[in-house]
Design brief:
With 477 residues, the chain is an alpha/beta fold. The chain is 29% helix and 18% strand.
């Protein structure tokens, strides 16, 4: 009965809040950062990076401490955001370029999966455009080839996106060679005139220039902006003058000790500040919801001879289903609704943003698509950070190899997290409340719990028809 009364009060409060703020359709700005780990922001605990503008966004809105990317790599998470479905359900479990060419020199052969977001899926941009919004995508796309670019997925305007996941350089004219040896190939950022006088221009600044233009031109109508930065992905190219400042701030024992990576965070932060200022100057700040998150955990491997980052105290990083690979920042500022400086401890995931945006914009979407959406609306948490979401279980599936992992699936139910590694069937069980660092594997000391979670994980994989790796019969150790 107490639970029912709580839900009734929350529903009434939400209805009152929506009606109070319903004189205009709220604008939506989603800022997706690339490869930014859970501790990448100073407000999330970085001991080096300075991000005052994003920290202020958290101070003005709500910060989620247990937010997760839907996958440990980019393309699957972005597909989950666009559709509200899990990567396994979409058959999109690895980045676009690797989707059709699985590794063949490991004990398991990863599945061939979809590299293009299918047009049969209903995207958040399509729903909002149908609802009268001007829709814009700026920056990284990585959800398919030209026939599946943003313009075919509900966006009125698009700039800078392609099927590639990273630029060859962050400096104008953003052209060069990516990879080495037989894998080397030319890359570029679409829409750039190399003859312009923009020497020294940084890509993060240029993308924000386009965002400023889009917001300014759209201020008289409802708009949805998907601001998808390439930073802080490799290549690690912070502005030299900013990197030099950070070099003097690094000392032994720090978790973050890459000056150029820190500089990339500062430039990102400056540009988030520019976006907020543009929204303010356009007179739409009170009616614009800003959501900032990342597509996966920080990249802990080397670039140019130096470790890129650490996700400490979390374990591992990008590519892994340990916490360092999937736990990410999430900040939501909903003017007049989210309590300033509030913090939610609810476990949430990227796919939740789809139904959340539908609810707060009053859009019904496509009924058939919505029936298969795995994400849930976060509005109860946005209204009351102490409220509990009805869902208690999250799932991940990464049937591929990466520097940090072999094929693996995982489930989180309340505080318990089980990981199932597919090469040898190994199980790992962690209590994320008492052991967020995932150092104490309790699979052997709690066999009934491990077996129960494994059965639920298997049932979910069967339900969504998750693509699975197969034994590599030609593998020789």
């Amino acid at each position: 009965m107490r639970r029912f009364i709580h839900l009734l009060i929350t529903s009434v409060l939400f209805l009152f809040t929506v009606l109070t703020h319903a004189q205009d359709k709220p604008n939506i700005v989603v800022i997706m950062v690339d490869d930014m780990g859970w501790t990448g922001l100073s407000s999330y605990g970085s001991d080096l990076h300075k991000t005052p503008h994003i920290d202020q966004l958290a101070t003005d809105g709500m910060k989620f401490n247990q937010a997760y990317a839907s996958a440990p790599v980019c393309t699957p998470t972005r597909a989950a955001f666009m559709t509200g479905k899990s990567p396994a359900q979409l058959n999109m479990t690895i980045w676009h370029e690797a989707s059709r060419v699985p590794q063949k020199n490991r004990p398991l052969t990863p599945p061939v999966v979809e590299g293009n977001l299918p047009h049969k899926e209903v995207t958040i941009a399509e729903v909002l455009r149908e609802g009268g919004y001007r829709t814009g995508h700026i920056g990284k796309w990585h959800l398919g080839e030209a026939s599946h670019y943003p313009e075919t997925q509900g966006f009125d305007f698009s700039f800078g996106g392609s099927f590639w996941g990273a630029p060859p350089t962050f400096y104008f004219p953003y052209r060069g060679t990516w990879g080495s040896g037989d894998n080397a190939h030319p890359r570029y950022i679409p829409g750039i005139d190399a003859n312009e006088d923009r020497e020294g221009e940084h890509l993060t600044d240029r993308l924000t220039d386009e965002a400023v233009r889009f917001i300014t031109q759209s201020a008289d109508e409802p708009f949805f902006l998907y601001m998808s930065y390439y930073t802080v992905h490799t290549p690690i190219e912070g502005k030299p003058e900013i990197a030099e400042k950070y070099k003097g701030a690094i000392h032994p024992g720090m978790d973050h000790d890459n000056a150029h990576y820190a500089a990339m965070h500062e430039t990102l932060d400056d540009n988030v500040g520019r976006i907020r200022q543009t929204i303010e100057d356009s007179g739409v700040a009170d009616n614009t919801i800003i959501i900032l998150t990342s597509d996966n955990g920080g990249f802990i491997n080397n670039y140019d001879g130096q470790t890129v980052t650490s996700n400490a105290p979390l374990r591992s990083g990008k590519g892994s289903l340990y916490e360092g690979g999937v736990r990410v920042p999430l900040i939501v500022h909903w003017p007049g609704v989210t309590e300033a400086g509030s913090i939610s401890e609810q476990p949430v995931i990227t796919a939740d943003l789809y139904p959340t945006i539908l609810e707060i914009t009053g859009q019904s979407g496509d009924a058939n698509h919505n029936h298969n959406v795995e994400g849930i609306s976060l509005t109860p948490a946005l209204l009351n950070p102490d409220s509990n979401l009805e869902r208690t279980t999250l799932y991940w599936h990464y049937p591929h190899y990466y520097q940090t992992t072999s094929p693996v699936s995982s489930i989180r139910q309340r505080q318990w997290k089980l990981m199932e590694f597919h090469e040898d069937g190994r199980l790992e069980l962690y209590d994320l409340i008492s052991d967020p660092e995932e150092t104490n594997n309790q699979a052997e000391t709690r066999p009934p719990l491990a077996a129960n979670l494994q059965a639920k994980l298997q049932a979910w994989r069967d339900k969504v028809d998750a693509p699975m790796p197969k034994p590599n019969l030609g593998y020789k150790n």
